[in-house]
Amino acid sequence: MEKKAELYKGKAKSVYTTDEDDKLILHFRNDTSMNDGERIEQLERKGMVNNKFNAFIMGKLEAAGVETHQIQLLGDDESLVKKLDMIPIECVVRNIASGSLVRRLGVPDGMDLNPPTFEFFLKNDDLHDPMINDYHIRTFGWASDEEVAQMKALTFKVNEVLKRLFADAGMLLVDYKLEFGRYQGRVILGDEFSPDGCRLWDADTRNKLDKDRFRQGLGGVVEAYEEVAHRLGVKLD
Ligand code: 5GP
């Protein structure tokens, strides 16, 4: 597989075309950003950990019947994926209140959410990823009603699979963000699932094991990601 031109550079990943039109290479960088790229730091090993962690999670999701773009790991910090027509929307499921939900609604941090709640955000850094609803998606034509229904169903299906996976390894899946794209007429999971885009707490101590360690200046960011990987049995070296 030949890596060709850089197609897109995100805040933590770069996307490259390949010699096959329907495949892309994702390069997971060590860059770690917050506030829509306002603060960026290099965290040694993070690209490698997230690439391998993501491949592991995507494999678990595929095994549970959630179609993903992941094809295979290509090296320490690169993966081969199917090229999707990305839908510019972030899908968030929350099992426990934290982050922007707490700021917006004034509910207690750490409150169990029963049933879990769901939110859509528009992927737009300039607008700080504003929250949107099904009607905005329909009015502005970002996705069809059927695609909206599929994104919700798939995001909740991922919740069933991953809540159990993390619980079995002594962790609480607090919330997470997913992105989907179109592939041969189907809506399938794209982007990544890593501690950069979810909240994970130790089930006993509720210690944070995710990107909130960076956002809140707690330190030990990559160490926490490696701890999560180790608990799940993800092979890193
Ligand atoms: P919140 O809305 O509380 O900031 O985020 C909810 C969940 O979605 C968190 O797990 C957070 O990491 C993830 N998330 C929301 N927006 C983004 C984003 O733009 N990038 C990444 N990597 N994760 C996000």
Task: Produce the secondary structure layout.
Blueprint: E1 3-9, E2 13-18, E3 23-28, E4 31-34, E5 39-42, H1 46-63, E6 70-75, E7 78-82, E8 85-86, E9 89-96, H2 99-105, E10 112-122, E11 131-132, H3 134-140, H4 145-168, E12 171-178, E13 180-183, E14 186-189, E15 198-202, H5 212-215, H6 221-232
Helix pairs in contact: 1-6
Bound molecules: guanosine-5'-monophosphate (5GP).
Descriptive report:
The relative contact order is 0.16. The chain folds into 2 domains: 3-82, Phosphorylase Kinase, domain 1; 85-220, 2-Layer Sandwich (D-amino Acid Aminotransferase, Chain A, domain 1), CATH 3.30.470. It has a 5-stranded antiparallel β-sheet with strand order 1-2-3-7-6. A 5-stranded antiparallel β-sheet has the order 11-10-9-12-15. A hairpin with a 4-residue loop joins β4 and β5 (39-42). With 237 residues, the chain is an alpha+beta fold. The chain has helices at residues 46-63, 99-105, 134-140, 145-168, 212-215, 221-232; strands at 3-9, 13-18, 23-28, 31-34, 39-42, 70-75, 78-82, 85-86, 89-96, 112-122, 131-132, 171-178, 180-183, 186-189, 198-202. α1 (46-63) runs parallel beside α6 (221-232). It is 30% helix and 35% strand. The longest helix is centred in the middle third of the chain and has 24 residues, at 145-168. Residues 90, 92, 99-101, 129, 175-177, 196-199, 211 line the site of guanosine-5'-monophosphate.
